Amino acid sequence: MLEYTHPEVLVDTEWLMNHLNNPTVRVIEVDMSPEPYKNSHIPGAVFWNILTDLLLPDLRLNLEATAIEKLLSRSGISNETTVIAYGSYPGIGAWIFWILKMIGHEKVYVLNGGYSKWAAEGRPLAAELSSFPPSLYRAKSPDPNLRVPQVEVQASLDRPDCVLLDARTPEEYRGEVFMIKPPEGRERAGHIPGAVHVDHSLTLNEDGTFKSASQLHSLYSSQGITPDKEIFPYCAIGGRSGYTWFVLRYLLGYPKVRNYDGSWNEWSRLPDVPIEQ
Hints:
Layout: E1 10-11, H1 13-18, E2 25-31, H2 35-39, E3 46-49, H3 50-54, H4 65-74, E4 82-87, H5 92-102, E5 108-111, H6 114-120, H7 150-155, E6 162-166, H8 170-173, E7 196-197, H9 213-221, E8 230-234, H10 239-251, H11 263-267
Parallel strand pairs: 1-5, 2-3, 2-4, 4-5, 6-7, 6-8
Helix pairs in contact: 5-10
Catalytic activity: thiosulfate + hydrogen cyanide = thiocyanate + sulfite + 2 H(+)
Keywords: Repeat, Transferase
InterPro entries: Rhodanese-like_dom, Rhodanese-like_dom_sf, Thiosulfate_sulfurtransferase, Thiosulphate_STrfase_CS
């Protein structure tokens, strides 16, 4: 039975239950809307809004040092804080893991199963908003080894040693829908030519926890996504691909994975790049 390469990056609901009152631990809930958080969240969790806290108006990830530092400081997170990330949807926590690793945060972990597993187990929930005294945070420059730019993605289209991995839904991959539609109206539908499609949700069990290492290996290797190749995941805005980066890099130990966080939001609006449907 294969085991995760880095099981230490996951925490389970029991561990979090035992550390809810630890002042060195900060729990982060991330979502598109604050309404689910306002109704019910893990006690002590602070809320990050994807659209206003993490993204720019054009839906690109905001990695400006001042913006990141302001967000973490307002959340009571210092460079030494242990961060546990989750969302109303289980995959979001792994995206936050990628973001925080990008700016050099050491102690970040993903709640395996997220909110759904926590609530299903009947664990305590809160409705009052969580706030903490502001901290001092200093972000490092974004790590270029964790992301891949559009020009390199385009240059890889004919490389047999490289896999473009589309982590969106089948409907998005086929160009039938936009999960998140860019604001300018210049986007095109479809997928990057030659991209292999593996919906990121296929990596999860029904309770929102990650499937076993053996199951994950089978899922990806059956599509030709193997550790000897360079893997560039992408999705709509870089979230589900950041999640896929986490699964491949930390759970399966793939050595050459970089997130194309520009993703379809960027590619679909470039007039001269190829698109398949």
